[in-house]
DNA sequence: TGAACAAACCGTAACGGTTCAGAACACGGT
DNA sequence: ACCGTGTTCTGAACCGTTACGGTTTGTTCA
C-alpha cells in the first residue's frame, strides 16, 4: 500500500468541518456548490481536506441522500464470453458505454451466473436503471430487475409488452436475406443457429424446439426463414437446423460439420450470426468446398471480421443500438409512455453467396 | 410503464415494519438473517412486501451502513472502442467480469471521456476498489482513484511502484519474438505500434517519442525490440516505427501503407498488436506482396482471429489476466504487502513469418 | 438613517438501512 | 419456586451526506 497513512479512522465531511470550525453544510458546499461560499474559505477547506487525506464526499452516502446512484446496470446473458467475444455484442456494449460516458454515469455489469438462480445481485446493485440485453424471455434476473423501482430498457432480446425496447426488425431483415438466398436458386438449405433456450442442446433442433425458443431473436429469425422458404415451396421440415449453446467460431465450425455430415447435399448454409458463419467458412475450407461455388454461406450482424472475410450478411448498427438504449434509459423518468426504437438493417451481399452448384438453376432475379 | 402503481411514495423497510406492527430490525432480518425470526413471521413479512411493492432493502442505504458497495470499478483507456473492439482487451474484461461474478459483485465501468480531465466520475463511483487497465502512466483518473480509500490493482498499463499489478513480461516476450525474426535473417525491419502518448500522432515516431511514451506496454515492447535488434547489429535509428492513435484493423493497414511507401525494402513488419498486424496483412495483400515470401508480419496478443489468419504472434493469457486482477482486488484488504503477478507468454510461430526474400540469408537457427 | 437585499454560513432533519446489546417469553430440569 | 438456556423480537445508535429554511453580516441606496 503506497497510500498515505491515515489516522485511526477515515476522515469524513463532519470531521473535516470540526477541524475547520465550520458547519458540514459549508464543507459540502465547498465540493458541490462553490458559489455558496467565499473562495478563500473554499480554498482552506480543500487544503485541509488534502492534509487529512479526505478525497471528497463519500459516493454512497451522497447517493443515498440525492437518490441517484450515478450508474446504470447492465443485465446480460448468462455467459459473459458471448458479450465480450462477439463483436456484435461488444458493439452494443460500447455504444451503451458511450451513452453513459456522455451522461457522466457509470455502467455496472450486474452478475447473474450461468444457471444462477440467485438474483440477489440484481437487488443489491446500486443503479438508477437497467439495460437488459440478450437474456431469455423468462429470465429470473429480468423479473428481479422489473421489481426494482427503476426504469428498464430492453435491447434485442426479451420480448415483453409495455417495456422500452431497442432493436432491429429481425424478421424483416431475415426475410430479405432469405429472399436473396432463394433468389439465387437455393432449395436445399441448412441453418446454423445460436442457443434457443437455457438448456444446452448442441444438436439438431426440432421444430417444436424452434418455436418454443426462449431467445426471442433466434425465434424471430428462424420464423422468418421458415416463412420465406415455405413461400418458395421448401417445406420447413426438410430444412435441418443445428443449434449451438456456446458462441465461438469453433462452435460454428462444429455445427457446420454436424450438419454437412448428415446433409451433404445442402447448397447453402444460413447462419444466424456472423461468428457461426465464420466457423462454417472454416469448416467448408477444411472439406475442400469452394465458397460460393459449392456452398453458399451467410451470416448476420455485419461485424468487421465478416466484412474482411467477404461474408454475405445483414448489417445492423450495433453501436447505435447500444447508444440508443443508454439514451432512452437516461432520458426516461419524465417520460410516461413506453418507447420502442427500431433500427435499420442492410443486406450486404459479399463473396460467399452465389447460385447453387446443382445443374438446374432457379433464377428469379434480373 | 407496466410496473404496478405505487402509493404516493416508494415503500421502505420502515413503512413495511409499521404496516406489520413489527420493528425495522425484524423486517431487516427477514431479508438478511432468516434464522433470526420465526418462519411464519418471515413469510408474513415477505407477503406484505410483495403486496406493497417492496423489492427488498435499498442497495444504496445498505451499502452506506455495511460499508461495502458490492462493485469494483474499472478504469480504462480514454477511448472505449479499444476495450470493446480489441479481442485481447475484451478477454481481460471477460476475465475480470468472471472474477466479479464469482464473488457476486458488480463491475462498474467508470467513465473518463477522451481528453476528459473531469475526474468527478471517479470520485462519484460507489465501488470497493479499482482495476486500472491500459491508461497512460500520468492519467489524472488514475491519480483520482489512488486518492480514494480503496484498494487498486493495475493491469498491464500504468507502471507504478508499490501498487498491485498483473501483466505479462512484455520485454521478455518481445525479445523472444524479435529473436525469432532476427533468427530468420531479417535485418531490414519496420515496426507498427499503438498509441504512445495521449496526443495523437498518426505518423512515424521519433526515438525520443518512443522513449518518452506514456503507455508503458508500448514503451517496453519498443525497448525490447531496440535491444534485440541492436544486439544483432541493426542500428535502431534505421528502423522506422509508425504509430497509430486508434486501434482498428484499418489503422494497421494504413500504418503499413505509410511505412512501406517510404521504406519499400523492409522484409519484416513487427506489430505491437494482432489488430495492427491483421491490417498489415490486408495491406500486403492489396500490394500483391506474398506473406511470408515477400514480407514477414508478426503480431502480439494471440487473439482468435490472429490464429485463424495463421499470424505469427505472442500469445498471452488475457482471460487469466483479468481474472487474476479481480481476484487480487477482491482478496485484498487483509493483505498488507503489494503483490505483482507476472503471466506467462508463448511465442506462436504461424505462417506469416519466414526468411527474407533477399539473396543473402542470415540463418542462425538449427 | 434605516429599509432592502445579497452574500456567506449554519442547524436540523432526513435518506433507508444494519447492528448490537438486551427484553420478554417459553420450556425443561432440579 | 428457581435457574439456565434458547428463541424471538425490539430500541437506539450509527453510516456520511445533502436539502431546506433559516440567521448573520455587510453593502447599497432612497
Automatic annotation (TrEMBL), chains A, B:
What the entry lists under Pfam families is as follows:
Peripla_BP_3
- Per the database record, which ranges form the HTH lacI-type domain? 11-66
Instruction: Give GO terms: molecular function aspect only.
Output: DNA binding
Q: Which InterPro entries match?
A: HTH_LacI, LacI/GalR-like_sensor, Lambda_DNA-bd_dom_sf, Peripla_BP_I
Keywords assigned by UniProt?
Answer: DNA-binding, Transcription, Transcription regulation
Claim: DNA-binding is one of the keywords in the record: yes
Question: Does Transcription regulation count among this protein's keywords?
Answer: yes
Task: Give the protein name, as stated in the record.
Answer: LacI family DNA-binding transcriptional regulator
Amino acid at each position: 500500500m503506497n497510500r498515505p497513512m491515515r489516522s485511526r479512522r477515515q476522515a469524513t465531511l463532519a470531521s473535516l468541518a470540526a477541524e475547520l470550525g465550520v458547519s458540514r453544510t459549508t464543507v459540502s458546499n465547498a465540493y458541490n456548490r462553490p458559489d455558496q461560499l467565499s473562495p478563500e474559505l473554499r480554498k482552506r477547506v480543500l487544503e485541509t481536506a488534502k492534509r487529512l487525506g479526505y478525497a471528497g464526499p463519500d459516493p454512497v452516502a451522497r447517493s443515498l441522500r440525492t437518490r441517484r446512484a450515478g450508474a446504470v446496470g447492465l443485465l446480460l446473458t448468462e455467459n459473459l464470453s458471448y458479450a465480450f467475444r462477439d463483436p456484435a455484442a461488444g458493439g452494443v456494449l460500447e455504444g451503451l458505454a458511450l451513452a453513459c460516458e456522455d451522461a457522466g454515469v457509470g455502467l455496472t455489469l450486474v452478475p447473474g451466473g450461468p444457471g444462477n438462480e440467485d438474483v440477489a445481485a440484481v437487488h443489491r446493485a446500486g443503479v438508477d436503471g437497467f439495460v437488459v440485453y440478450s437474456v431469455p424471455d423468462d429470465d429470473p434476473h429480468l423479473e428481479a430487475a422489473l421489481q426494482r423501482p427503476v426504469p428498464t430498457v430492453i435491447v434485442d432480446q426479451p420480448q415483453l409488452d409495455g417495456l422500452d425496447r431497442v432493436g432491429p426488425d429481425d424478421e424483416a431483415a431475415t426475410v430479405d436475406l432469405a429472399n436473396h438466398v432463394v433468389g439465387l436458386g437455393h432449395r436445399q438449405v441448412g441453418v446454423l443457429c445460436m442457443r434457443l433456450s437455457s438448456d444446452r442442446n448442441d444438436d439438431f433442433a426440432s421444430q417444436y424446439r424452434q418455436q418454443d425458443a426462449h431467445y426471442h431473436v433466434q425465434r424471430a429469425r428462424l420464423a422468418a426463414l421458415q416463412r420465406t422458404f415455405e413461400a418458395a415451396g421448401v417445406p420447413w421440415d426438410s430444412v435441418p437446423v443445428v443449434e449451438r449453446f456456446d458462441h465461438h467460431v469453433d462452435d460454428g465450425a462444429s455445427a457446420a460439420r454436424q450438419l454437412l455430415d448428415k446433409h451433404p447435399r445442402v447448397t447453402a448454409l444460413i447462419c444466424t450470426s456472423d461468428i457461426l458463419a465464420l466457423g462454417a467458412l472454416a469448416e467448408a475450407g477444411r472439406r475442400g468446398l469452394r465458397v460460393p461455388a459449392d456452398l453458399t454461406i451467410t451470416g448476420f450482424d455485419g461485424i468487421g471480421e465478416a466484412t474482411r472475410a467477404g461474408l454475405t450478411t445483414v448489417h445492423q448498427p450495433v453501436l447505435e443500438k447500444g447508444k440508443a438504449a443508454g439514451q432512452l434509459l437516461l432520458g426516461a423518468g419524465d417520460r410516461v409512455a413506453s418507447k420502442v426504437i427500431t433500427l435499420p438493417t442492410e443486406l450486404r451481399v459479399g463473396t460467399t453467396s452465389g447460385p447453387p452448384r446443382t445443374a438446374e438453376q432457379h433464377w428469379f432475379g434480373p
